[in-house]
Amino acid sequence: MVMKHKRLGDLLLEAGLITSEQLAHALAEQKKTGERLGEILVGQGLITEQELLEMFELQLGIPRVELDRFSIDPDALELVPEDVARRYRVLPIRLEENRLTVAMADPVDFFIIDHLAMFTKKQIEPVLAGKRELARAIDRCYGLEESVAEVLRNVQPEEIDLQEVSADDAPVVRLVNQLIEQAADQRASDIHFDPQQNELVVRFRIDGVLHTKMRFPKHLRPILTARLKIMANLDIAERRLPQDGRIQMAVRARAIDIRVAVLPTIFGEKVVLRLLDPQQTLTRLEILGFSETNYDAFVRMIEAANGMGLVTGPTGSGKTTTLAAMVDEINRTMAKHVITLEDPIEYLHSHRKSIVDQREIGLDTASFAAGLHAALREDPDIIGVALLGRVRQKDFVPFCRQFAALVRSGVPLVQTLALLAEQTGNKRLRQALLQVSALVQEGESLQDAFGQQRLFPEMFVRLLGVGEFSGQLPVVLERLADFYEKEQRLRQKVVSAFVYPATVLLAAVVVSLYLLVSVVPTFVQAFEQQGIPLPLPTRITVAVSQFLLDFWYLLLLLTVLLGVMGAYLRRTPQGKQWFGRLRLAVPIFGALEKKNILARFARTLALLVSSAVPILEALRLVGKSLGNDLYRRSLDEAVQGLSEGERIYATLERKRKLFPLMVTQMIAIGEEAGKLDFMLDKLADFYEQEVQTMTSRLHALMEPVLIMILAVVVGGIIVSVYMPMFIMMDAIGQ
Fold first, then answer.
1. Range of weakest confidence among 107-116, 332-341, 556-565, 659-668
2. Among 440, 434, 377, 436, which Cα is nearest to 409's?
3. Sign of CA dihedral 695, 701, 704, 706
4. Is the pTM above the cut of 0.70?
5. Distance CA 47, CA 42 (A)
6. Neighbour tally for 405: CB within 10 Å
7. Coil, strand or helix at 382
8. What is the average per-residue pLDDT within 172-195?
9. How far apart are CA 106 and CA 33, in angstroms?
10. Exposed, middle or buried by CB within 10 Å (0-12, 13-18, 19+), for 112?
């Protein structure tokens, strides 16, 4: 009982949530404004609403309810009209006989409790709920039912009347406006209109989590989609292609900017609205949820004289909010010139101590590259970019694309390399880029500087040299990014074809060894004690088991020796050629390997030719990149033939087993027409499709075959073990 009479400030002090000075300041503010102490502390960011509710629960002894997780009783809702619920900020949540449980932001407001008791003729049992949570729950439980009912009464299935989706007083217009208003009130970042087989589901993304808001009958899908398209000035007749648009509307006297994305799906068009409120209140850095250590580190990073920071995360995780809070902190505490490039602008910053110049990609500047190029000429202290995604460690694709963007933007080469080094999480790549940056600063060419680092492939280094010499470095880097992206996809397809059979075979070996080493010896001892004669299959199994038990170390040594010999042979010219021939001779998988090599040959040669690398050097680089010594030797011979005046297709025709007729014919056509790179790209597309088709067929074919092999091997061991038992049972029966 004593705890109930303690004052809120004393409870907060005891819990260590505020200090005496903070309490005194808040009490002084309370005398000036008349606000409640808890609301003042929450508004100042000293405590969270959750902590305030916990203190109220402790102080008042009234239970707290989480409405977002609570199942609301429909019978209870019928007792309290929407206007009463909104006026008093209450929500009936449960009805049990004569007792009505009501969620309230202020559960000790006896005037409201008495009024509800008289109105409902029920005994009121108040429970505690947060204001925001309560407002969301009221919007969720009331509000749209009447508009939905009116739309259902007036809209005929599969009919779209332009008047119905255009007139301001039309039911569907009011319904869509109410949905957007509720989403804005609940601080939703996105609205999803998701078509399903028999319905249209509307979801709000709030704090990064999708919440189902409403479900409409499927015949309302066309008219709701048409209304959204009209609002965004999109083509309502186009239903096969994606469309993007923009809506600007006023919600509660605030201008809301809405980005619209329409995507055709199997059940209709999916529409996603991104709600942007430029006037929304900026979140202070200190209430973002940082621990004390991380907060201090983040502030030190902001105050640093130079450097770069990356904020990454999934949709709705708070990247933009964190960046906006960071810019706001700089704006309040430092005199800086800040330029931001955003896609889109979600928070507006006013000039305070700093000058904050915000630019939106696609509106204020044509592209990120153009915006960055312009920003660097305007003497900025800080450039904030809400555009670049996270940097992967072992992939050339983002590295090449970011390299191209920075070079295209006019960033000096040394600074570009330093920025790329800071971005990467790969320690070896960071060290290599820093060394390259130092070499370039000393006067080395880009090709020579990268060539001194063993981390980068020779073809990559050579193409950098071509781009540097021709002045087309961004173009070459973009081509390299596309090349590595396609190369990665092709490699994944080929690897997937080998992973499954290798896994099943490994499982068969492990299970067989376990049976032979652990299970079979146990049964053998039992058979010997009983004097049971062993049939031939059992004797073979026992012999293999005994051999493994007696000479396992020899087998292990032999395996190691074979591995060492194989590694040694792969380094010798004869060994490389033998292994290359073996890989192509393996049934089924050899054909897949050949198609994979031909796809990579065509794609790599197309890249080098289109980048103006001399054909002799291009063929040499391609041969080194294919990973098969037979092809490397063949291309070296082609280089020799070309140097003697032959054409490419003629030199490759002599190696018909490695280069099929179609390959040489396509190359011949490309040479004749002067479009060799184009024909090679088409050839690569063909073989990549062949690889994909073959891997799909292999998956379908190998599964039953491998299962049968596993069954034969493991089943054979088990049957051979049980055969003596069957003989013994027959003898007993006789």
1. 332-341
2. 377
3. negative
4. no
5. 5
6. 20
7. strand
8. 81
9. 19
10. buried
Q: Which two tokens stand for residue 140?
A: 């969720």
More reliable by pLDDT, 636 or 533: 636
Angstrom distance (rounded) from CA 408 to CA 373? 8
Residue 342, strand partner residues: 360, 386
Q: What's residue 583's pLDDT?
A: 75
With a cut of 70, say whether residue 425 has pLDDT above it: no
Which domains does the chain carry?
A: 2-136 (3.30.300.160), 143-276 (3.30.450.90), 285-481 (1.20.81.30), 494-734 (1.20.81.30)
Q: How far is CA 494 from its chain centroid? A: 23
d(CA 400, CA 716): 54
Instruction: Give CA–CA dist 469/182, Å, rounded.
Output: 58
Both tokens of 222, joined, read: 């066309």
Q: Amino acid identity, residue 223?
A: I
**Nearest by Cα to 619 from 596, 598, 597, 601:** 601
Whether the pLDDT of residue 59 is over 80: the answer is: no
Are residues 23 and 52 in contact, defined by beta-carbon separation less than 8 angstroms?
no
Q: Which amino acid is at 522?
A: T
Note the Cα 20 to chain centre separation in Å.
Answer: 46
Comparing CA positions, the residue from 259, 249, 242 lying closest to residue 177 is 249
Q: How far apart are CA 47 and CA 29, in angstroms?
A: 16
Distance (Å, whole) CA 575 – CA 88: 86
Is the separation of the CB atoms in 677 and 609 below 8 Å?
A: yes
* The predicted structure's pLDDT at residue 1: 37
Residue 473, SS3 per DSSP: helix
What is d(CA 662, CA 690) in angstroms, rounded to the nearest whole number? 14
